[in-house]
């Protein structure tokens, strides 16, 4: 049973100085069942300790850190955060690594093995086994997250850093939603944008007309050619086409169902892409031929899907190999075929709102990344307008 302890004024420096060294901390009650303690040992160490009393009168303890690292106010705030966790049944705050592992497990159940494998691969490379991974969530601070991000940037590309950091933030957000930490403010203060992050700019820095795209596709093996053609016809993301099943191709209604997790809270979103174009419809009829409903709609030459067993997109290495073997622009990625399709639709005069719906993106993104490519076309249209002059 809990016993009453003497309340000490340990918030005062002179009081702490006058106290004798002993194993048992000196306590100050903050609220019923909530105590903040100060431990002073014969070796000279001084530590803040939190103690919480559960409904059955049992004590739970948490070491908050050395006196040198926390003022009284900071130790009190840290203790209050831990007390709040105790109230909802989380007596021991997990570490960053535990949060990442829990997130991977959740992705594997709620999303897919491919999604979980990608996150796990990044965590193994940049989180697991590091000092950063051992930090408890209730002690995680903005500066520590910034330092981790900057260290990652020093040894990687801005694009890789941004993507990996987004996945880490998703893991921390999952821990927050699961009640493992009281606030998500510490990592919300850290910007996703890093110096040199030019992914979207580079993707749209150059445009290939249809004939140039055909020239590249002719150099590709049949399976990669079909994969990139599907992107060109639908403006889909490579991941969407790779994940599409035969049953997603609805022949009677002439539409293809595409799914993605971009945007707010990364919820799975589905959209119907119209296959009104006869050539496009015939292409997908050929892709779906002699396949079971649950089979991948687009397959490699070995009849397997485009995701490897480890969750990697097999198209990435193939696109790189072809472009280098035949001296194409080294910036080329499969994603360009999506961007060029979107640009073509806009230049055809399809309004931005409809293009955004077709591509599964927002009007804001269309305006931000495609305006410069459409401008020249608009200039040509204006030049042809009959005037009153």
Structure write-up:
With 389 residues, this protein is an alpha+beta fold. The chain is built from 16 helices and 7 strands. The protein folds into 3 domains: 13-87, 2-Layer Sandwich (Double Stranded RNA Binding Domain); 96-196, DNA polymerase, domain 1, CATH 1.10.150; 201-383, Intergrase catalytic core (hpI Integrase, Chain A, Orthogonal Bundle), CATH 1.10.443. Helix content is 48%, strand content 11%. The protein has a 4-stranded antiparallel beta sheet, with helices on one face. It has a 3-stranded antiparallel beta sheet with strand order 5-6-7. The radius of gyration is 29 Å and the shape is elongated. 29% of the residues are buried.
Task: Reconstruct the topology from this structure.
Blueprint: H1 13-18, E1 26-31, E2 34-40, E3 46-53, E4 59-66, H2 72-87, H3 96-110, H4 113-126, H5 142-154, H6 158-177, H7 185-188, H8 199-203, H9 210-218, H10 222-234, H11 238-243, E5 249-250, E6 255-260, E7 269-274, H12 278-288, H13 314-325, H14 335-347, H15 352-359, H16 363-383
Antiparallel strand pairs: 1-2, 2-3, 3-4, 5-6, 6-7
Q: Short summary of the structure?
A:
The protein has 16 helices and 7 strands. The chain is α+β, with helices and mostly antiparallel strands and 389 residues long.
